[in-house]
């Protein structure tokens, strides 16, 4: 399983970005895909997750609730993270990960909010 993130960049505070994570490879019909972020000197933290199965559920970190939205496009094997009302504290390297029997991580995409 391989994952590639895209959509990072530099934006002013209050702006928006949409991250994409496209995966390839064979995965079961039930899985979890999540976004994590890490700023230098800080621990990696979970940002949002989407649980795909008979039902679809989402989870958000308190710090991004109401500002970030995770969604998926099954036909494109892609999960998105829409980020609105960005603040400087959102600056980090953002990773997507797919959780099945093992975890598979993408290389990350940088988000910088000034």
Element layout with pairings:
Elements: E1 2-6, E2 9-11, E3 17-24, E4 31-38, E5 45-52, E6 56-60, E7 68-73, E8 78-83, E9 92-99, E10 103-105, E11 109-113
Parallel strand pairs: 2-11
Antiparallel strand pairs: 1-3, 3-8, 4-5, 4-9, 5-6, 7-8, 9-10, 9-11
Number of contiguous helices: 0
How many β-strand runs? 11
Distance between the termini: 34 Å
Q: What portion of residues is helical?
A: under 10%
Helix/strand/pairing class, anyone? mainly beta
The dominant shape is globular
Which range does the strand content fall in? over 45%
Indicate the radius of gyration in whole angstroms: 13 Å
Mean pLDDT: 94
- Flag low-confidence runs: none
Q: What's the story with the biggest beta sheet?
A: 7 strands, mixed
What oligomeric state do these chains adopt? single chain
SSE order: EEEEEEEEEEE
Describe this structure in words.
The chain is mostly beta strands. The protein has strands at residues 2-6, 9-11, 17-24, 31-38, 45-52, 56-60, 68-73, 78-83, 92-99, 103-105, 109-113. The strands form two sheets. Strands 2, 4, 5, 6, 9, 10 and 11 form a seven-stranded mixed beta sheet that branches. It has a four-stranded antiparallel beta sheet with strand order 1-3-8-7, with no helix packed on it.
Task: Give a brief rundown of this model.
This protein has 114 residues and is an all-beta fold. The protein has strands at 2-6, 9-11, 17-24, 31-38, 45-52, 56-60, 68-73, 78-83, 92-99, 103-105, 109-113.
């Amino acid at each position: 399983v391989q994952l590639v993130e895209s959509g990072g960049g530099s934006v002013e505070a209050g702006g928006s970005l949409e991250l994409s994570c496209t995966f390839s490879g064979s995965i079961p019909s039930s899985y979890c895909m999540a976004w994590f972020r890490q700023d230098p000197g800080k621990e990696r933290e979970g940002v949002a997750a989407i649980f795909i199965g008979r039902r679809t559920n989402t989870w958000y970190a308190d710090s991004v609730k109401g500002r970030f939205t995770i969604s998926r496009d099954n036909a494109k094997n892609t999960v998105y993270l829409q980020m609105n009302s960005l603040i400087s504290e959102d600056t980090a390297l953002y990773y997507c990960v797919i959780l099945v029997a093992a975890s598979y991580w993408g290389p990350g995409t940088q988000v910088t909010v000034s």
